[in-house]
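The freezer alarm interrupted the setup, so I double-checked each line after restarting. Inputs confirmed:
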Amino acid sequence: MRLLKKSLKARMTAYFLLVSIPVVLALAAVSYLLATVTLQQMAIARFEVIADHKELQIDRFIADQAAVVEKIAGLDPLRQAVTGLLVQQRGTPEYQAAYLGLADQLFRSTFLDYGTAAASDLTELQLLSHVGGQVLLSTDPEHERAYRLSDNFFTRGRLATYVQPVYPEDDTGAPTLTVATPLTSSAGTPLAVLAAKIRLPVLVEIVGRRTGLGQSGESFLVDAHYRFLSPERFGLAAYPRGAHSQGIDAAIDGNTGAGLYSNHDQVAVIGSYRWLPELGLALLTEIRVSEALAPATRLGWMLVGIGLLAVAVLAVGIYLIARQITRPIRAVTETTHKIAAGDLDHRAPVLTEDETGILAENFNHMLDRLKETLEALTAEQEKSEQLLLNILPAPIAQRLKMGEDSIADSFAEVTILFADIVNFTPLSANLPPAELVSMLNEIFSEFDQLSEQLGLEKIKTIGDAYMVAAGLPQVRDDHAQRVAEMALSILAAIAEFNRRHQADLSIRIGINSGSVVAGVIGTKKFIYDVWGDAVNTAARMESQGLDGHIQVTEASYAYLKDGYEFGDRGMIEVKGKGQMHTYILMGRKPSVED
Amino acid sequence: MARPMLMVLVLFALIGCSDPATEQQVIRIGLIAPLSGQIPEVGKSSMEAAQLAVDEINARGGLSLDGGRFRLELQIEDGEDRAEASVSAALRLINRDRVSAIIGPQASRNAIAAAKVAERAQVPLISPWSTHPDTTRGKQWVFRVAFIDSFQGQVMARFVRHSMAVAKVAVLFDIASEYNRGLAEEFRSRFEALGGKIVAFESYTRDAPDVSAQLSRIADSAAEALFLPNYHNEVPDQVRQARALGIQALLIGSDTWGQIPEVHRRTIEGAFFVTHYAADIADDRAQQFISRYRQAFGRAPDDVAALTYDAFGLLAQATQQQGRGDARSIRDGLAAIDVYQGVTGKIAYGDTGDPVKSAVIMEVRDGRFRFHARADP
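Predicted 3D structure, all chains:
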């Protein structure tokens, strides 16, 4: 199932099988049914012919036997012998003599005059009295002296030759076929009835001849009471209530027909059945369905086999075709995998010119556009990154990008510098603003450069003031030294500026060291700023400093006193702080090594 | 997996539901009666009594057996009063209709042959009316409701010899019919054993109804009584022929005479005959049967009707006792019955299918049958 879900090839093959296997099976089933019907019709047609033939043979046989009996009855010596017997009183010696004479005559009539061969199918001959139907003489002496006056063969045979349909003999119940004919004197006076029982196995034999019936086919006779006529099957314990099947029951009901049904042994057969009213027998011809329909079964299975083989071959073909069709798609898929892994330079191969080819081309186009866009995006991103870095220190920018929305870090030791151009305000009154800004830009750009060279963090400019710090956001031990260097460099830069522009600018610088909090607050136009008392003190050092000098607090002095020359300014009143001891940074001490 | 199981369950449920819901189960009983042929009145009475018995049993809700309640279904076949046709009828009932039991045939000449078929097929057969010993002789599956001819011959011989003090009797009988011949011979030996004399023992066959030649010889025999153990369809004519020949002997008849229709009874005025039961002395049970029968069919039941009705009663009791309605159970039930109180009296069975029961001797007076005496075995 997973394979079906994952593989287009497998699914296409499966769909094909789903459609084609039922078609093959349906085809086989229909062929089987059609063949079945045809074979059934053929079998039935054949059975009809066989049954017709057998019926004809039976009729001829019965007619022959009836003719034999009639002929015997018509023999004059027999007639005379019967006449001789009838005039005698039973029990007298004369009767006995006449009886023996008649028996002798009957024997002659049957076997000598008429011929053994033709008469041998008569099993018993009886002479019955014309009135009362008493058996005067029988080839089976057991039956003599019985009265048959209610038997059909007697009542009908008294009038004309009569073949009584097979009936159960009243003593044994065995099926019996009797032909009877009136025996008259030469003058035509009725004397007796000559009755003959016909050997039934002859009928069984006629019917049992297996011509054109195949292996399991058989013809058989059943009497009106659902009993097989054949001696080997008659009265079998297997059929305590007679042999029944659709064919047997229908035939005994007087119907003629054919069909597919279960026979008396519950075996499915194709059978033809008919009722022979003159004989009171059902003639059935049956063949096992398994045999009769074997060709249809073979055909059906053959079709299933061939069909499935064809389906299998086609399935392989379908699989290969599906693979051919899905190859470009798979190529595109592989490309997407590589691109997903980051390789934007990869392109799908265009293998065909059909829809999948167009798909690959479009895909490649899309990739091109995507790559351009991504590159443009990267450039833009770098630019904005740069801009951001101009405003914020790199680590802070990084943290903001990572998602921090406000940053406030404490720094125990930093040094802050404020520088203010002293006589800038009167200057600004005389200069056009553009020139003024240009000038300020030149100066502060110089400062920015210095700040960058010294690894300081420029905080901001406020009008003509410039604020820079060291020791943040990266903690460093020489923060005071670096700021001192910055202050000295600013003084030098201003001097250089004055010289270059014949200007008379002066600058006041204040420095303080201490702990601060640095960070970014707010969401718009934010900057990296510092807060704390140390910052205010630094600003006070500048505002209450001396023009052209660098005033430092005692804290900064403590850091710098070893490396720099200071002038002691002594205690000054600082606004908001009270008395503070400040120093003026003069310059570097001459190096020991120097 | 679950669906097929469910379907099977539903199927079982349906079968289970349909079982009590459907019509009651059925036990098929065959009746072989001479509806055509020479004694159709016997056929008619058989059919009517059978119908009445079956209707009554079914109206009570059928038989309550092991598998629930069973209705009786009657399957009637015409025996045509011919042995051959009766055999065919028995085979049809057994093999085609698959009956559990057969009632009939009535006349011995048909019953003897049909009984052989039932015995061979192992289907119980009860002949209500047959009195010839051969019907049941040596058979395990055949029963009867009537007394047998050895008893009847004895009763008649005693009555004629002792009660009527007759010494010379002539007999005319159908030699081609087992009952007639058997009873004639039985009577002869019994009567002669009692010191009587059979002065004429004449036979005929029923396809030659003119018996004047035999009667002439009887007329010459100086017989005091004429015994006619023949069927009711022949007796009145034989009596007329005898009277025409001047025979004024006492007429003696057998149980078949009970069937002689009223129109012919004056013909046999003064005769005595043995039969199975007499309406005059019927007990309550019999009286009720008579009135129900009369209500249903507008006439009094004859012997055949009463015996047939009892045959169904026996059958029902045997089946009920066994709790099963198959052929073997019914036979075993019949064999197990010792005494059955029927409308024809108390019917006791020994080890055979022949009951031991009383006979009655009837007198024909004023064109009517009147109870004369009872003869107990």
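Quick read of the result. Chain B has a mean pLDDT of 90.
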